[in-house]
């Protein structure tokens, strides 16, 4: 089935690209942009992206590896001010004005 008419990308192309990307780098986070680049193409109008993402999500190899899932949350967890200097916090700026 054709998923992207602008670039003539089929669901088979997407599945093969996802499988190839996972096989070549088991720790990579696979995004639609990376799949387009792997196919040597780029999104044109963007109308296909919902179906493109649905097709990608059907792949069992798309999942982010378990040891990489919490990396984004770990550095800021429990840190309400995200390491901003004291004077740059909104709550303190509002009190000074």
Characterise the protein shown here.
The protein has 4 helices and 2 strands. The chain is mostly helical. The chain has a two-stranded antiparallel sheet. The mean pLDDT is 79.
Q: Please state the CA-atom Rg, rounded to the nearest Å.
A: 20 Å
Tell me the strand percentage band. Answer: 5-15%
Major pleated sheet: 2 strands, antiparallel
The strand count comes to 2
Mean of residue pLDDT? 79
Number of helical segments with 4 or more residues: 4
- State the distance separating the first and last CA atoms: 60 Å
* Structure classification: mainly alpha
Question: What's the helical proportion of residues?
Answer: 25-40%
Overall body shape:
extended
What are the secondary-structure elements, in order, as H or E?
EEHHHH
- pLDDT < 50 stretches: none
Strand order of the largest sheet: 1-2
